[in-house]
Write a structure and sequence with these properties.
Blueprint lengths: L10 H19 L4 H4 L10 H20 L1 H8 L6 H9 L7 H21 L15 H23 L10 H9 L3 H5 L9 E6 L5 E4 L6 E6 H8 L10 E4 L1 H9 L22
Helix pairs in contact: 1-6, 1-7, 3-4, 3-6, 3-7, 7-8, 8-10
Length: 274
């Protein structure tokens, strides 16, 4: 795919975008009452506190990957056979019942990751869960996590989120890992290239893949991000597929490895994004 926005080649811009997206988590939770931290989110069994703790873990992991390969290997050793189990075990170590401490932990882990990724040489891959990846790509994966879990928090609180063209990093990452949905289901990806034509929040056109491709996905870039993070059902999004493979992809798309998780129901959320 071509024209991936900011991915890999513009590391300072990616890091700035990551910091700005992460700051949105503070905007969502900094002034919450304790009762709001225990609100259930659309992810079954996860409260607002669980969502923030998960982001703490992801950012701590990313910062360690960028700064200390040996420590990263030690952190992930237990996750090789049961990643979800290992994540849940780590979540239990966070102060879920103390919002003030959890918020402080989030800010510490956030700053640690942003600073470590900014200091990493842009052209030298850092270790990650399956294989080493460039720090810019890891920052984009971090933005994907913030968008996904931030959306869960916003949904639990009943608030809308404003999307900016910073989501281009998430779009580019999702296009780059377009096969994850097949892999998580044990399916073989089709032997074809897709064309993606998406409209950014500012009205820019983002295009990926060969212009002559028969399998095409078009529509709203913010909706595309909600699709690939599986935070909205495709029926509630402004996205169109042309071709059988593209149509199938819309139903299984995800920008993260592992189990897809429980899908959102059609009509579960109001059509307006956020």
């Amino acid at each position: 795919m071509n024209n991936l926005p900011n991915v890999i080649t513009e590391l300072p811009a990616v890091i700035d975008d990551l910091a700005a997206e992460a700051a949105q988590i503070d905007a969502l939770v900094a002034d919450l009452d304790p009762a709001d931290w225990v609100r259930e989110t659309p992810a079954p069994g996860w409260t607002v506190a669980h969502q923030v703790a998960h982001l703490c873990f992801v950012f701590r992991l990313a910062g360690t990957a960028a700064s200390d390969a040996e420590a990263f290997a030690a952190m992930t050793a237990k996750a090789e056979e049961d990643f979800d189990g290992a994540v849940n075990a780590v979540l239990a170590t966070y102060p879920l019942d103390d919002p003030e401490k959890l918020l402080a932990r989030w800010r510490t882990d956030r700053d640690f990751a942003v600073e470590a990724l900014a200091a990493a040489p842009a052209d030298q891959p850092v270790p990650w869960l399956v294989r080493p990846i460039p720090p810019g790509v890891l920052a984009c994966a971090g933005m994907m996590e913030v968008l996904a879990h931030g959306q869960d928090i916003a949904d639990a609180l009943g608030v809308a989120l404003d999307r900016t063209d910073r989501i281009g990093n998430v779009v580019g990452f999702a296009v780059m890992v377009w096969e994850f949905g097949y892999q998580s289901r044990g399916l073989t990806p089709p032997d074809t290239e897709f064309r993606f034509e998406l409209t950014s929040p500012s009205g820019r056109k983002w295009e990926f893949g060969p212009a002559e491709a028969e399998q095409r996905i078009t529509g709203d870039a913010a909706d595309f991000c909600l699709l690939v993070t599986r935070r909205r059902h495709r029926a509630d999004l402004d996205l169109t597929a042309v071709g059988a493979d593209a149509d199938h992809w819309l139903g299984i798309a995800q920008a993260y490895r592992g189990p897809a998780g429980e899908e959102r129901r059609p009509g579960q959320f109001a059509r307006a994004r956020g």
